[in-house]
Structure formats: C-alpha cells, structure tokens
Write a structure and sequence with these properties.
The complex is a heterodimer. By secondary structure, chain A is mainly β. Helix content of chain A is 0%, strand content 45%. In chain A, the strands form 2 sheets. In chain A, strands 1, 3, 4, 7, 8 and 9 form a 6-stranded mixed β-sheet that branches. In chain A, strands 2-6-5 form a 3-stranded antiparallel β-sheet, with no helix packed on it. By secondary structure, chain B is an all-beta fold. Chain B contains no helices and 11 strands. In chain B, strands 2, 4, 5, 6, 9, 10 and 11 form a 7-stranded mixed β-sheet that branches. In chain B, strand 5 and strand 6 form a beta hairpin. Chain B is globular and about 40 Å long. Classes of the chains: A mainly beta, B mainly beta. Chains A and B meet through strand 3, strand 7 and strand 8 of A and strand 5 and strand 10 of B.
Chain lengths: 110, 118
Amino acid sequence: QSVLTQPPSVSAAPGQKVTISCSGSSSNIGNNYVSWFQQLPGTAPRLLMYEDNKRPSGIPDRFSASKSGTSATLGITGLQTGDEADYYCVSWDTSLSGKVFGGGTKLTVL
Amino acid sequence: EVQLVESGGGLVKPGGSLTLSCAASEFTFNTYGMNWVRQAPGKGLEWLSSITSTNYKYSADSVRGRFTISRDNAKNSLYLQMNSLRAEDTAVYYCARETWNDRGIDYWGQGTLVTVFS
C-alpha cells in the first residue's frame, strides 16, 4: 500500500486530454514539493514535472501539473501513442523522513 | 549530460550480501544529494535511501539496518551495501540524483538487476 494514492490506470483516445491524480496528506504533498515521472516500458523513469508545477527543459508543454491541499494532478493534452507509459508522483514525507512514491498509473492511449 | 551508471547487480542467495555502485559524471558530484530507488518485477518505484551532499543519510523502514548508503566524492561514486538479502529484495536498483536545491530527483541511471534466489 503506497503512501501516495494514484489510480492504477487511465485511458483516453489520441488527441484527447487525461489527468492523473495523486492523493496524500499534510505530511507529504500538503507541505512538500511534488514531482512526476514517466516510465516508458523497459526504461528508467524520466522527470516530467518538478516543484509541483515546473517543467524541465525538453518536456513538451502538453504536460502540466498542479497541486491543491494534499492532492496533486498531472495533466496531459494532445495524447499520443508514445505517451503510453507508467506515471509516478513522489514527495518528501516529513513524518517518515523519507521520499514516498505513488503506486503508479498506467496510461493507455486507445 | 548527466551520467549515472550502476553496477554490481547479480544473483545472490538469501541471507547474502551485495554492494551496488553508481558512477557519476558530467556534474559536480560532491555538491549534490543522491538516492537509491528500486523497482520489483512488475511493481512500482520504492525509495530506499538518500545521502545529502554533507553526508547526512535517510533510509526507508523496509531496509534500515540492512542496507547502507555511502558516497566517495573523490571517486564520484555512490554505493549501496546490502546485507541479509531476502527474496523480496529482488528488483532493479536505480541510482538517482537529487536536484541542486534538494527538492526532488532529476536524473536516473539505467538500473542494475539484483536477483535473490535459492
């Protein structure tokens, strides 16, 4: 059971928009930064978003993120088949003195 | 471009030990915090341990007392000493760099596979 809760899977058609939620508590998301990672099949994770809503250079602006209270959301617009991957949220947990990951969400582009 | 290359994975029997290494390059290693994260087959990511640029260490409850993170700044290397290995420690182990301001992970290595079986 992960400390951060993500839906196991989401799906949408090419060109559509999808959101992935990440729910936590005041010990983690509520008072610490959230990052999002994309993991394509058979590869290492790649940073998508950091410090709640910032995009690293090289990440398309189709990807966005937000945070409200103890929940965070990743948004992807203009879905492409190449976006099919597992997506993870992560934050620092002050009570645990460690990082906590969400369980991951598998995105299927139908 | 930041490079992180893990090594040291392999087959080990339950109760055995293994030391993983991560060779870092293309950034000033001694000014960054570093992390170990693992992924069991078909499962999600699990944070294991972090070490700051000033050598302060944090570890997950699941490995505290069995796994030890360390670094050698002279060799630009990160290590994970793993003892008392169990079947459930079977996973791909990733080395990952912390951001310059310690607000999350930015770069990952390609991972090294550790298989614990009898």
